UniProtKB/TrEMBL annotation:
Keywords: Membrane, Transmembrane, Transmembrane helix. The lineage of its organism: Eukaryota, Viridiplantae, Streptophyta, Embryophyta, Tracheophyta. It comes from Arabidopsis suecica. This is Serine incorporator/TMS membrane protein. The chain crosses the membrane at residues 20-40, 52-74, 89-113, 120-141, 147-167, 188-210, 238-258, 279-299. Its main location: membrane.
Length: 309
């Protein structure tokens, strides 16, 4: 689907009809393409598993850029409202609530996942997350950046959530992971959590797939007018590319990012590899956010230097 819809720019074209229609053919192809992998040699499946490591990483990168772009878009919407005084109150309330949830989340992680001083790795993860929140806030509030309170507060929520997911992915046998040890049994709550996690991933994949605009450069006014007339509403190729990498991400979650790692029934994203993937994703998200804040200043100074020379 990615190769057949890549570069589609006009509605009512043959590739647009293929993307939006042909459901009878797709319903026949779907079960066929689902059954075929079970008939392939295991070496091909292992090869896909190695490729899926890279594809899942690409999906995580696309997703975090989409999240950061949404946070900045939300901040711009609040700043562009006509009733600036009322919006300022809303921004302060939302930012204060976000910072409060961040602090409560950090405290709970210390209680649940760092019960004693021997849990050095978890203490490092949590403390470093707290430092990253402070770093993002300091840079966002710098007079030259002036990004406000809202974006670092929402990014703080995002990195605290990723940190919690990372520590929660640690193997159940670890003494520092008391929450996992307390729930070390398969019951209806475990199954519900598994299903909710899958549904959340489907929603995240779909929303990221249709958000191709945050990865595009600014266009001319003539191009925008032409796009409004008969242009496609979103990038079809990008949409299917995100779903392909999202499928690879699903595969990595179900095997704990390790093709040789056995997974317990009804568990998802558990293992040390999963933990470190989450941690690196958190650090990368902070780096991307900080770059989005300081990039305009760096590029502006370079233009000024170039014009002077």
């Amino acid at each position: 689907m990615f190769l057949s819809t890549l570069g589609t720019s006009k509605t009512h074209s043959s590739r647009d009809r293929w993307h939006s229609g042909w459901w009878f053919a797709k319903l026949i192809m779907w079960p066929a393409l689902t059954i075929i992998p079970f008939l392939l040699p295991s070496s091909i499946i292992h090869l896909y598993g190695e490729i899926a490591h890279f594809g899942a990483g690409v999906f995580l990168l696309i997703q975090l850029i989409s999240v950061i772009s949404f946070i900045q878009w939300l901040n711009e919407c609040y700043q562009s409202q006509k009733d600036a005084e009322r919006c300022r109150v809303y921004v302060m309330l939302l930012a204060t609530t976000s910072y409060t949830v961040c602090i409560v989340g950090v405290i709970l992680m210390y209680i649940w996942y760092a019960p004693d001083s021997s849990c050095l790795l978890n203490i490092f993860f949590i403390t470093w997350t707290l430092f990253l929140i402070q770093l993002m806030t300091s840079i966002a509030l710098h007079p030259k950046v002036n990004a406000g309170y809202l974006t670092p507060a929402l990014m703080g929520l995002y990195v605290v959530f990723i940190c919690w997911c990372a520590i929660r992915s640690e193997p159940v046998g670890e003494s520092c992971n008391r929450k996992a040890a307390a729930s070390n049994r398969t019951d209806w709550l475990t199954i519900i959590s598994f299903v909710v996690a899958l549904l959340a991933m489907v929603i995240a994949t779909f929303s990221t797939g249709i958000d191709s605009q945050c990865f595009q450069f600014k266009k001319d006014e003539n191009d925008q007018e032409e796009e409004e007339e008969d242009g496609v509403p979103y990038g079809y190729g990008f949409f299917h590319f995100v779903f392909a990498t999202g499928a690879m991400y699903f595969a990595m979650l179900l095997i704990g990012w390790n093709t040789h790692h056995p997974m317990k029934k009804w568990t998802i994203d558990v293992g040390w590899t999963s933990t470190w993937v989450r941690v690196v994703n958190e650090w990368l998200a902070v780096c991307v956010y900080i770059w989005m804040l300081v990039a305009p200043l760096i590029l502006k100074s370079r233009r000024q230097t170039t014009s002077v020379t």
